[in-house]
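Lab notebook, bench 4. The sequencing result for the construct came back, and we need a structural model before the next group meeting so we can plan mutations. Quick request posted to the team channel:

Model the 3D structure of this chain.
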Amino acid sequence: MVKLEVFDPSGFAESTEPSLYAPRLGDLNGKTVGEISNGEHGGWEVNRTFALIRESLKKRFPDIKIIPFTEFPSGVAGIDVDNIGDIVAAKGCDVVIGGNAA
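Done. Here's the predicted structure in token form:
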């Protein structure tokens, strides 16, 4: 007999335990979004892809403020540090887009 365990691909799991994560934002209007690239020297096509993401977000949320990836450390060594949360908080970000392309 084979037993298969299936996971929800949406990444959502119900739990009665308190979450370690902040609650999801209902809307990005009036929020500050930081862009962080996990690629060295900006990553693959990061200028193009973040520009497209930025444009799309600004159309949907006119009152959004976006801090570009160029204002943050980049690359795995740059963002995989204990104080990356402090860096993001110092910039006033409510949310971060982390990683981008390959």
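The CA atoms of residues 15 and 32 lie 29 Å apart.
Will bring this to the meeting.
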